[in-house]
Amino acid sequence: MNWREEYRSKCMDGAQALKAVRSGERVWVQSGCGTPSVLLDALVERAPELRNVEIVHLKTLGEAVYTRPEYEGIFRHRGLFLGDNVREAAAAGRADYTPIFLSEIESLFASGALPLDVTLMQVSPPDEHGFVTLGSTVDCTLNAARASKTVIAEVNERMPRTHGDTSFHVSHLSAIVETSRPLLESDTNPFTEV
């Protein structure tokens, strides 16, 4: 099977792709503009079927619905950086914060100190050789994906392609959800005279 056929065979909707997440698993979520909100929405839809799913990430954008009080016991957030979308949950005791240097995070995956079951990421469409890239958010996600048993990718046709060590071959993806949506952006406060 060539990579194009393999890619097509792995394409599905979010609900179908997120069936791969099981109770008690640890899920890494790509951060920043690369937050795979379509995949997170599909994961939250599965809430009635799940228990004790740990969601780990750096600063994500958008609403972190899984940190709401009604999802306690279903999802537990472990922040390696606390963005404004999860601070209230951490302050209320529904989420955890693990202080760590950014440069040390990937060694947690490699050493097995923080084993990962699933990685959710948003990537660019594949190139002519079948490689997607992490696009706008090149952080710990590449190594998280390499360490995970299951890798689910939102392939967003609007995600820009990036160069360097940002690529992942479609043969290493477990499921693909195709989208075409604007990337999430940080909210900015209006400028003042100061």
How would you portray this structure in words?
With 194 residues, this protein is an alpha/beta fold. The protein has 6 helices and 9 strands, in the order H-H-E-H-E-E-H-E-H-E-E-H-E-E-E. The protein has helices spanning 3-10, 14-17, 37-45, 87-91, 102-111, 141-147, and strands spanning 26-29, 53-57, 75-79, 95-97, 118-123, 131-133, 150-156, 167-169, 175-179. The chain has a 7-stranded parallel sheet with strand order 4-3-2-1-5-7-9, with helices on both faces. The protein is globular. The mean pLDDT is 94.
Features:
alpha/beta, two-stranded antiparallel ribbon, 6 helices, 194 residues
Short description:
22% of the residues lie in helices and 21% in strands.
Topology:
Elements: H1 3-10, H2 14-17, E1 26-29, H3 37-45, E2 53-57, E3 75-79, H4 87-91, E4 95-97, H5 102-111, E5 118-123, E6 131-133, H6 141-147, E7 150-156, E8 167-169, E9 175-179
Parallel strand pairs: 1-2, 1-5, 2-3, 3-4, 5-7, 7-9
Antiparallel strand pairs: 6-8
